[in-house]
Amino acid sequence: MTTPISIEDVPLNRFHQWLSVRCGGGWVLDGYVLSIIGVAMVPLAAALDLNGFWQGLIAASALIGIFFGGFLGGVLTGRLGRQKLFFVGPTIFVLCSVAQLWADSGMALFLLRFLIGIGVGFEYPVAGSLLVEFMPRKHRGPRLAMLTILWFAGAALAYVVGNLLLGSGEADAWRLVLASPAFIGVALLLVRIGTPESPRWLLSKGRTTEAEAVIQKVYGPSFSLRNLPEQPAEKKVSIADLLHSGYGRRMLFVAVFWSCSVIPVFAVYAFAPKVLQALNLSGAWASFGSVAITLLFVVGCVIATKLINVVGRRSMLIHSFLWSGLALLGLGYFSAGAELLVLVLFGAYAVFIGGAQVLQLVYPNELFPTEIRSAAVGMGASLSRIGAAVGTWLVPLSLQGIGIGNTMFAAAAVTLLGLLVSLALAPETRSMSLQEAASLAR
After folding, report:
1. Confidence check: pLDDT of 237 > 90
2. Are 82 and 131 in contact (CB under 8 A)?
3. How many CB atoms neighbour CB 138 within 10 A?
4. CA gap 6, 228 in Å, rounded
């Protein structure tokens, strides 16, 4: 009897491509909605007479929301399924983005963007788990990495659209800037209609008939559960397993490396014009420099995506932290340097950090079994956002208190901490099936 082909070894089909659009659209929207505040910050601060404290708090509010949304979304996705939670994030984005048209105080903006952050927190475990549990192993790493590219593409789009709206001459144009994510959110809700539940999650809940029906619908009538390599484990794992044994070590690695890779990035995105102005880039240099650097983040992620199955996960993460950390050290040392040198160093950081960025979704989705995969992704997103929120809140205070040079040195220290943790704990999961990658026996 011939061994049935595993669904992890089938070629990409139309469903895989369509699912990539459905999941990837969430990351475009995440990048857009989290970055748009950086475009609107200067005019809204003036219009609402906000001091540095409130500017930092509003910029960090969505990150604080991610902390709660990641935990909640991860737990609920594990219990209720991926499909049911697939519409929560976009719905929150639409409602809260539109509501910002009438925000009249720093507190109102803080609360609305906090809720937006909760929606983003739901996206990480829901869309990531759904995509990885359908994707063949050969394409799993690149497709998960693609989500990060789309996040930066959404961030770049936010700066382009935001600057166009601010330049329109409309009164209170910053309100239109903050409300603009609603259009993407509506489109995303429509495109996600008809998405099936993950057969791996159904199988983990003992719903074998439904799991087989999904497999046959996606891969064809000749496929069945025999083509799914992952079978229910003899010993069930629970969320508590994320805190001890081998999974506790993996959770520590994911939380620390994810935090160290996002803290400098979110701080830059929230206050890109201010950071660039502090580095002696003013006027058009500051406005369009932020767009150019964001595009270089995309370039770095594209390069990393192309190399992820070539150099492996561990090697890519180590080199990403090493060279991006050195670029930040250069920015600290040459903070008063020529405009071109500053742009080159900032651009180098943007390109080199791409490896760590794309692995934020690859590692947590590969290192944990189906029962706790979404919880692990949600916990990683939540814990990483604690540092990101604090770092973002401190940026305006840091620029004013210790200057741009020391601020860049602090960002370099965070990045090099990620390097040390990766050297000690980063595993290699290239070419493994999901069951092999998540196994503690290897």
Report:
1. no
2. no
3. 15
4. 6
CA atoms within 13 A on the CB side of 364: 37
How many angstroms separate the CA atoms of 439 and 104, rounded? 52
- Which residues span the domain enclosing 265? 14-195+233-438
Query: Is 4 within a domain?
Result: no
> Which pLDDT value is given to residue 270?
53
> Residues 335, 169: contact at Cβ < 8 Å?
no
d(CA 258, CA 30): 17
CA distances from 250 to 67, 367, 418 (A): 19, 7, 14
> What CATH number is given to the structural domain containing 349?
1.20.1250.20
Contact 129, 53 (CB under 8 A): no
Amino acid at 77: T
Whether 177 contacts 36, CB under 8 Å: yes
Give dist(CA 256, CA 70) in Å, integer.
Answer: 16
Helices 106-132 and 14-48, interaxial angle, to 10°?
Answer: 170
Residue 409: its H or E element? helix 403-425
The structure tokens listed for 238 are: 């629970």
- Total number of domains constituting the chain: 1
**Of 129, 124, 123, whose CA–CA distance to 91 is shortest?**
123
- Please report whether residue 411 resides in a domain: yes
Whether residue 351 lies inside any domain: the answer is: yes
The pLDDT score that the predictor gives to residue 1 is 46
Cα separation, 348 vs 156, in Å, equals: 17
pLDDT digits (tens, 9 = 90+) for 343-400: 788 889 889 999 998 898 889 888 888 888 888 888 888 888 777 777 766 766 776 7
In the prediction, which pLDDT does 320 show? 96
Task: Compute the half-sphere exposure of residue 78: CA atoms within 13 Å on the CB side of its CA.
Answer: 22
pLDDT band at 234 (very low <50, low <70, confident <90, very high): very low
Whether 140 is in a domain gets the answer yes
Q: What is the mean pLDDT of residues 228-251?
A: 68
Cα angle 33, 37, 42 (rounded to 5 degrees) comes to 160
pTM of the model: 0.78
pLDDT tens across 405-414, in order?
Answer: 787 888 899 9
How high is the mean pLDDT of the chain? Answer: 84
